[in-house]
Amino acid sequence: MLVGDSLSSLDEFALIQSLNYKKQSNNFHNKLGVIKGIGDDAAVVQTRSGSQLVMTCDTMVETIHFNPYTMLDEDVGYKAMASNLSDIAAMGAIPKYALISLSIPKHYSTFRLKKIYKGLYECANYFEIAVIGGDTTKSPKHLNISITLVGEVESNQALFRSNAKVNDLVFTTGYLGCSAAGLDYLLKVKQKQLMLGQIPMNFLPLVKQHRRPTPQIKAGRILLQSRRCHALNDVSDGLSSEASEICEASNVGFLFDEVKLPIHPQLREYGQLIGKSPLDWIMYGGEDYQLLGTVSKADVVHIQNRFQQEGIPFFIVGEVVAQKGVQMKDAYGNIKKIHKKGYNHFN
Ligand SMILES: Nc1ncnc2c1ncn2[C@@H]1O[C@H](COP(=O)(O)OP(=O)(O)O)[C@@H](O)[C@H]1O
Ligand SMILES: Cc1ncc(C[n+]2csc(CCOP(=O)(O)OP(=O)(O)O)c2C)c(N)n1
Ligand SMILES: [Mg+2]
Ligand SMILES: [Mg+2]
Ligand SMILES: [Mg+2]
């Protein structure tokens, strides 16, 4: 990076890399028991007990992650917690403790902040997370909420992005694209603090997926306990981006099968209504917080059965191939390259 480079010329992931690359030695990290550092959904470190700690943080910034047209105050707190939980789920770990950092602009009332915290605790209590601290400051203009989550995982069992193997099957734990379509709807309606009761029934699943995504903690645990999942990631930036991350970390490629990608009926209907392909939202939308992973063909039936027993969806959507990058096979068998495009903070 050159002095004076503007942020808009940089990719978010290249920026993280350039700020941190070669700043600390491997020996130093090894001494401190770092099992996984920068580059996965969460970091994993060794403790003296038999288990390992898993740590992650994610931030929500007003205007970037939410605004008065897209979210109710309660939803902001809920989603801040849920999006962090999702990164713990993507490691197959058990979330435990949370620290909340809040930066508040002058115009926010305590009434609104209490609503944000109501949603936050709703999510924390459901998933049995202890809120144990945080930090509070004022902010010049917009609300900023950042959560650090700490969890626990059985030693050396955490699921990384880096272990996908050629010939594995690629799966997701639910529908994708709904959150982005819900966001599109809310931004078009453009009504401040729109209540669920004011939203037509057929758009409700899309809006709910945007405002209150369910972190896939249970799915992550099933996958870890099966000991048969090779690679795992959560879908915050869109399927294309998250698939590329697994491919890059594992040095493999993905071949998605378009006819196998599940399309939520309401996503299809909304796409038809506004003349947009559901595939765009699925590949490039983001914020679905489903899990995307790989498992060997021999083990897939076992895992499918476990998901069925727990009533959690499990969709096989493609396979891992030797050719690098992400590709899509359409209904006619034509294969095209999918570019790593999705939500990126700086371009
Ligand atoms: N400012 C930063 N300094 C150091 N590491 C960072 C920074 N921002 C992100 N990371 C790390 O980079 C990796 C990718 O981050 P991110 O894309 O936000 O992951 P995710 O989409 O799973 O939340 C993670 O391992 C994260 O901990
Ligand atoms: C008002 C508004 N505009 C756009 C978006 C879309 N959006 C914002 S951030 C984001 C990606 C996920 O957030 P990020 O901070 O990248 O989380 P991470 O990948 O670190 O989990 C998306 C799709 C939104 N949620 N709200
Ligand atoms: Mg993630
Ligand atoms: Mg993140
Ligand atoms: Mg992101």
Plain-language structure description:
The chain is of the alpha+beta class. The chain has 2 domains: 7-154, 2-Layer Sandwich (60s Ribosomal Protein L30, Chain: A), CATH 3.30.1330.10; 169-338, Phosphoribosyl-aminoimidazole Synthetase, Chain A, domain 2 (Alpha-Beta Complex), CATH 3.90.650. Helices cover 34% and strands 24% of the residues. It is built from 11 helices and 13 strands. A hairpin with a 5-residue loop joins strand 12 and strand 13. The longest helix has 17 residues, at 73-89. 42% of the residues are buried. The model has no long low-confidence stretch (mean pLDDT 96). Thiamine diphosphate (TPP) binds next to loops. It catalyses: thiamine phosphate + ATP = thiamine diphosphate + ADP. Mg(2+) 2 binds at residues 58, 87. Mg(2+) 4 binds at residues 41, 56, 87. Its EC number is 2.7.4.16.
